[in-house]
Design a protein that fits this description.
Elements: E1 18-25, E2 28-35, E3 45-46, H1 52-61, E4 68-69, E5 80-83, E6 92-99, E7 108-115, E8 137-140
Antiparallel strand pairs: 1-2, 2-3, 4-8, 5-6, 5-8, 6-7
Length: about 150
């Protein structure tokens, strides 16, 4: 029997009918909790491991004003806000695998990518550990507004 995580009510409508959606995308499956009342969606979490339900619930339950330690950030390509006190801004970034071969002969490595023009210049928006401070905190991006269709 699968343990159902405890979920907070919808931050938009207060609804309590929250369900886990599974979406097939090219090369992956993503999961997210959604409100059955107003269709608000939590952040997407990739993978099909035993922890995806808990990670998706954690993403749903986090409210946008809560910074989290960087060690708890999703490592599946989910875009999040990143923070380090020296940056003076909160750029959007994501954790990703960079294909090798690398100068050291390895096949590749993981690091943070950022989308921010005010940070020190890096190649392809990558945060290299020796070029600048790594992020210390992260926060989920806000849930996109639900657009109603026009009659």
């Amino acid at each position: 029997m699968t343990h159902e995580p405890e979920l907070k009510p919808c931050p938009f409508c207060g609804g309590t009918s929250i369900g886990l959606d599974r979406i097939e995308v090219p090369r992956d499956t993503v999961f997210m909790y959604c409100c059955a009342n107003c269709s608000a969606q939590g952040p997407e979490f990739g993978g099909d491991d035993d922890t995806v339900r808990e990670r998706a619930a954690h993403g749903w339950n986090i409210r946008a004003s809560q910074w989290q330690p960087i060690e708890t950030a999703p490592r599946d390509g989910t875009k999040v806000f990143l923070w380090h006190q020296k940056w003076g801004s909160a750029p959007v970034g994501w954790w990703d695998w960079v294909e090798g071969p690398c100068e050291d002969g390895t096949g590749g490595f993981c690091l943070w990518h950022v989308v921010e023009k005010n940070l020190p210049p890096t190649e392809d928006g990558l945060i290299w550990p020796d070029e600048m401070e790594l992020p210390t905190h992260w926060m989920p991006m806000p849930i996109a507004p639900v657009q109603e269709t026009q009659p």
